[in-house]
Design goal:
heterodimer; A: 238 residues; alpha/beta; Rossmann fold; 4-stranded antiparallel β-sheet; 7 helices; globular; B: 314 residues; alpha+beta; Alpha-Beta Plaits; 69% helix; 8% strand
Chain lengths: 238, 314
């Protein structure tokens, strides 16, 4: 599903974020990406979303080479990827509901469906009672959960998240991981960048560790495998 | 199960109705959100189209006046006051022999005086006190359409002028010819001035849209990252420019109409021939539509310039 072939990303002569990175993530996998700050995790995720292009090497997602993808096809590619940004990227002038509804407008979903889908997505992150609040009226954790609901609302083929539990307490972090697990069980390939070693330790998932832009370790964490699939909270998997 | 990736997504589906509603809502919201800059853009369009409309109105009224005169284009052949009956018969026979002259009518001295008194009632008394009737007899000759512009006609009039008993030959289409030239010049000036101003207005709208796009750059970035197409991103901005341009066009026509009808009510009845011509009638609906559409096109062009430029940057 996600293939990196000898990918190097340099921002300038003195700053190389990723060095000759080669790995692949299979369809349906759930992978944690970890490493210290500045290791290149965010850069790697940006490459997958094609926010940036590699200096050298090839990035292929779902059989599509992102080095050569046409500009006209890019939006359709991105619609299949749910991304939880580290800085949330919520539209401040829109309410929580509108932030989600907006995505459905972009995806040409009938307006009749907006409320149902948005409500379901927000209920999954336990924010359905704050549909009419504006992002600035929410705490950091709440904003993060809205960002997660937005990423999941389209039942994406690939789900990538940059520190999705960074602002959450341990209980809520576990709930969020459960939501990602559900998405994974519905068929989404999940790549989750996180610092939280506790989350990784007990996940039983594959873990890629980056250091100074290189893969320093790649292993399956100990612990139980993914939990059984919970109810179809989004109502999107018909 | 997650959906399969749409690798054939190179052709966008038709814009659904909810997208059009989204475009309109967003355009109206953004116009309202930046009222001041939008007002400047609308005002610029309105001013340029108002200037163009003034020229159009002027040339429209002059054009109508010319057409009215030319509809019964005629030559007046003034005769000597002491013309003999033989000379008059010869002149009459000469005029009758030329088919390009559709009709002729002999106006006696008495009839000319009576006309003068009826046209200029305040001078009637003065005319009545004259010892001698100063108005010469004349022939009023109606022309066949298109004859006045022909070369042979000038030669014919030269011959008429040489006839014994003819004092003067007056062509009123000389005036219409001059007026036509004036109208042409007015049209050129109007189109040039209106065009330059419309371009300036389009660039003003381009700058307003550019500012709005800068204001919304974070939102645009988010839209791109979640898979919005360029059409989805640019649509509201294009509609915004289009609305501003159309509104400018409507304002220009409204101000022009208000000025015209106010002028017609206050200035035209002053019995001045000039005001009568200038305030004869308002623009026909076709020209009104052209003016408003001009605003729409200028607005669209301005916003297109901006979104095209920002897209290149993207």
């Amino acid at each position: 599903m996600i293939h990196f072939y000898h990918v190097t990303k340099r921002f300038d002569r003195y700053s190389t974020a990723l060095h000759d990175l080669t790995f692949q993530i299979e369809k349906g996998e759930f992978v944690f990406l970890t490493g210290p700050s500045g290791a290149g995790k965010s850069t790697l995720l940006k490459l997958i979303l094609r926010q940036i292009t590699p200096t050298e090497g090839q990035v292929v997602v779902n059989g599509r080479n992102l080095n050569t993808i046409r500009r006209s096809v890019l939006p359709f590619f991105r619609r299949e990827i749910g991304m939880v940004f580290q800085d949330f990227k919520l539209i401040e002038r829109m309410t929580v509901f509108e932030n989600l509804s907006f995505i459905l407008t972009v995806l040409n979903v009938s307006p009749r469906e907006h409320k149902r889908k948005a409500y379901a997505a927000l209920r999954a992150v336990d924010l359905h009672h704050r549909m009419n609040a504006y992002p600035l009226q929410l705490s950091g954790g709440e904003q993060q959960r809205v960002a997660i609901a937005r990423a999941l609302i389209n039942d994406p083929l690939v789900l990538i998240a940059d520190e999705p539990t960074g602002n959450l307490d341990p209980d809520m972090s576990q709930d969020i991981i459960r939501i990602f697990n559900d998405a994974n069980l519905r068929g989404s390939t999940v790549l989750l960048a996180t610092h939280d070693r506790d989350l990784i330790r007990e996940s039983g998932r594959r873990v890629i560790t980056l250091e100074h832009g290189r893969i320093s370790d790649e292993k399956i964490s100990v612990g139980e495998r993914a939990p059984a699939r919970s109810d179809n909270v989004f109502g999107l998997a018909q | 199960m997650a959906r399969e990736f749409n690798s054939q997504g190179r052709h966008e589906p038709n814009v659904p109705s909810n997208t059009i509603t989204y475009f309109l809502k967003e355009a109206l919201r953004r116009t309202w959100a930046s009222k001041r800059t939008s007002f400047v853009a609308v005002a610029m369009i309105a001013i340029s189209l108002f200037v163009l409309g003034c020229f159009l109105l002027l040339s429209e009224n002059l054009q109508r006046a010319v057409e009215r005169w030319q509809g019964h284009s005629r030559v007046t052949v003034y005769l000597n006051s002491e013309i003999t009956p033989d000379q008059q018969r010869a002149i009459d026979a000469f005029l009758a022999s030329h088919t390009e002259l559709a009709a002729r009518r002999f106006v006696t001295k008495q009839e000319a005086l009576a006309r003068f008194k009826s046209y200029f009632t305040n001078l009637a008394e003065v005319a009545g006190n004259l010892e001698e009737n100063p108005f010469p007899p004349s022939y009023e000759i109606e022309l066949r359409p298109g004859i006045a512009q022909s070369r042979g006609f000038e030669a014919l009039m030269t011959d008429v002028r040489k006839l014994p008993g003819v004092d003067q030959v007056q062509f009123d289409w000389e005036w219409t010819r001059r007026l036509r030239r004036i109208i042409e010049v007015l049209n050129i000036i109007g189109i040039a001035a209106g065009g330059v101003l419309a371009m300036a207005a389009a660039f003003t709208i381009a700058n307003v849209i550019r500012l709005t796009m800068m204001l919304y750059h974070e939102e645009i970035e988010i839209m791109r990252l979640v898979g919005a197409t360029e059409r989805m991103i640019r649509g509201p901005f294009l509609i915004e420019g289009l609305l501003q341009g159309t509104l400018g066009g409507i304002v220009a026509v409204a101000v022009l109409a208000a000025g015209f009808f106010a002028g017609q009510r206050t200035l035209a009845p002053s019995s001045s021939l000039l005001w009568g011509f200038l305030f004869g009638c308002f623009l026909p609906w076709q020209k009104i539509v052209v003016l408003i559409l001009g605003g729409t096109v200028a607005g669209w062009f301005g916003s297109w310039l901006s979104v095209h430029e920002r897209r290149e940057e993207a």
